[in-house]
Amino acid sequence: MQLLLDTHAFVWWLDGDRRLSPRARRRIADAKSQIFVSAVSVWEITTKARLGKLPGALDVATDVPGCILSQGFSGLDISLAHAQRAGTLAGVHRDPFDRLLIAQAQVEHLTLVSRDEIFDDYGIARLW
């Protein structure tokens, strides 16, 4: 299974946070799963840490790529196709981080690991 972690799922995985669902934790830990963390999440973590909105992730924000690699996960760059899809998505969801994650999940045919039910409106597979 190929999974794309929403930003909160990635941070909660790193922290061992119990808010990450047991089902998501099992799939992420499964050696058969290929796990991706988007450049979008790197942007979101570093932005929110800088603004003081993610104080628990200050250590992560200093080296997000290193944290991704330390878990055996793969980074997912933002492509032109991802950006175009994000810009043309219908719907009222305005969060630019989420819109890019939706676009990446659609274009790359990835299952998005997220607690956010708003993603279900965009026809992507969501795991929680």
Walk me through this protein's architecture.
There is one protein chain. Helix 3 (39-50) runs antiparallel to helix 7 (96-108) and helix 6 crosses helix 7. Helices cover 49% and strands 13% of the residues. It has helices spanning 7-15, 22-29, 39-50, 58-62, 64-70, 80-88, 96-108, and strands at 2-5, 34-38, 74-76, 111-113, 126-127. The chain is built from seven helices and five strands, in the order E-H-H-E-H-H-H-E-H-H-E-E. The relative contact order is 0.21. It has 128 residues and is of the alpha/beta class. The protein has a five-stranded parallel β-sheet. It has a single domain, classed as Rossmann fold (3-Layer(aba) Sandwich), CATH 3.40.50. The two termini are 14 Å apart. The radius of gyration is 14 Å and the shape is globular.
CATH H level: which superfamily? 5'-nuclease
Mean pLDDT: 96
Largest sheet: 5 strands, parallel
Secondary-structure element string: EHHEHHHEHHEE
Summarize the structure.
This protein is an alpha/beta fold and 128 residues long. Helices cover 49% and strands 13% of the residues.
Draw up the topology in text.
Blueprint: E1 2-5, H1 7-15, H2 22-29, E2 34-38, H3 39-50, H4 58-62, H5 64-70, E3 74-76, H6 80-88, H7 96-108, E4 111-113, E5 126-127
Parallel strand pairs: 1-2, 1-4, 2-3, 4-5
Quick tags:
5-stranded parallel β-sheet, Rossmann fold
